[in-house]
Specification:
This protein has 142 residues and is mainly beta. It has one domain: Nucleic acid-binding proteins (OB fold (Dihydrolipoamide Acetyltransferase, E2P), Beta Barrel). It has one helix and six strands; from the N terminus they run ββββββα. Strands 1, 2, 3, 4, 5 and 6 form a six-stranded antiparallel sheet that branches. A hairpin with a 5-residue loop joins strand 2 and strand 3. The chain starts with a strand and ends in a 29-residue tail after the last helix.
Length: 142
């Protein structure tokens, strides 16, 4: 299932070569949403893998973007215990035209502030999500 969300880049990680065949790059997008007049902020950590790690080479901090991503879930066994974790795998990043864009996930906002999408397939808009991946030990099998 494909999702998309708009926000402002607040962290751009370096490309990391995890193994001979696996590369990863993480980045964080700040998503502000207005709920009944109150602003709620989510900090959403995405990852790019393999040949997609270069997608952010022409982006800078504080740029407004739309991120297209998939939610992935994994099961891993360690010492006889099942461990589950999720990742947000970005597969496309678009710059937004309006630097003052609000970051609600309404179809009107997507249509008015995004760079025109040349992809004929459309994707649903995801509700903002946040996740704490820092709590997971970095001894994954890849």
């Amino acid at each position: 299932m494909n999702f998309e969300i708009e926000g402002r880049i607040i962290s751009l990680g370096e490309i990391q070569q995890k193994t001979d065949t696996f590369r990863i790059r993480e980045f964080v997008v700040q998503n502000d949403r207005n709920v009944n007049g109150s602003i709620f902020t989510d900090y959403i950590k995405f990852q790019l893998t393999q040949d997609r790690v270069e997608l952010l080479n022409n982006y800078q901090l504080d740029e407004n973007v739309k991120v297209h991503f998939n939610i992935r879930g994994r099961k891993w066994e360690k010492n006889g215990e099942d461990i589950y974790f999720n990742s947000l795998d970005a597969w496309k990043v678009e710059k937004l035209i309006d630097a003052n864009a609000s970051f609600s996930n309404t179809p009107a906002n997507v249509q008015n502030n995004a760079v025109p999408n040349t992809n004929p397939m459309t994707t649903p808009t995801a509700a903002p999500m946040s996740q704490n991946l820092d709590a997971i030990e970095d001894d994954l099998p890849f």
